What does this fold into?
Amino acid sequence: MATVYDTFEREAPSRLLPLLQAATPGRVLAWRNGRPVSVARFLAQVRYVAAMLPAACAAVNLCEDRYAFLVAFCAIVLRGQTNLLPSSRATQAVDEVMAAHPGCYALGEQVIEPAPHGYLRLPPLDDAPDEAVVAWPQIPADRLVAIGYTSGSTGTPSANPKTWRSFHASNAGNLAMLRAAVGERFDVVATVPPQHMYGIEMSVLLPLLGGVGVHAGRPFFPADVAATLAEVPEPRVLVTTPVHLRALLESGIALPPLAAMVSATAPMPPELARDAERRFGAPLLEVFGSTETCVFASRRTTTEEEWSLYPGVRLHPQPDGTQVDAPQLDAPRLLADIVSLSADGRRFRLRGRQADMLEIAGKRASLGDLTRRLLSVPGVQDGVVFQLDDADTLGVHRIAALAVAPALDEHAILDALRRAVDPVFLPRPLLKVDALPRNETGKLPRAALLELLARHTH
It folds into this structure.
């Protein structure tokens, strides 16, 4: 029996694909300023903005409001241009992306000081005239609609091009996974930015291609998350990260009823998943993917150690990582993650990342496991273990750690680690800090870690 995934694998590049899938003019695409926004109104605003955009190859989409990002994203696509998505809104990150795409411009809904070169502000969206929906916009399947940049958590950010066909294919997997958990129709509130690939998949593509409603906001504080959830109807899906979820639990705040929680960007500790499901009465679904591949597997962390692959996805373990073959990829991609496959090849266990594997004095460990053990020390609220660039006289790269632990000192943390870690893997130095330099999705860019360590050791 043919599936939607088979279709994506076979279709010709010249095929046209809809900008909005299976839409009706009155369907609620978004919730903004306490009011629903219909597909018809959304399309009118997209065309209004598209008509004002300059001729260019690409645009840096800097909109913070999720609905404004959606409008700008689609307007850029309708003009035949590419959305450029830097790893952060920091001036240097934006400038580097713009320098790599001569002739591009930047687009956002806010006043930015200092503004990027050629920065344009979105016009007031409510000024867009209403218009009848005559035909749904169609986009060439092979059109390059976005270039996402990695976070830099493992080195220099890299560019990852996405076609409209690849987004249709990746959305099919996410939509099937969520519908199996919560049903055909649901609304999304996301704490992650829309520029991040995880944010695009769960809060931009789902509304466009899956008949899902999304809230325009990006709530940060626990009280804001609760208030935002209350503004959308049931069933509700909260798209978040382990860092945001931990903050919600520690706040003690009550949330409106949830149908499911979705998490990504960092490993989800099983005990955190159990606490979240117990407190909020909904399953926690962890998704696995990358900016390079988009999401290709999921699991319910409280009941499954193994990840289940989406239909059409195949993994091929390699000596230096894992090759991913998925409907959304034009060619297989090699990830640094080390996995072991089940007998049928449809499930896998994550064993670590090639770059995270350590071998010292004939002994092996992983940075991920060492970080997990650091976080399990009572009193440690946040922490990370990482390897330094410079080697000692024996050619061994030292291990360092940063910990947020207001009630402990460094010696107490190290004493606790000695009971759980082989002495050769004890981090030296281990430093206490007030906070880790996490980005908007909770990741830790390596350059920021090294800079923070340098400030505390000099």
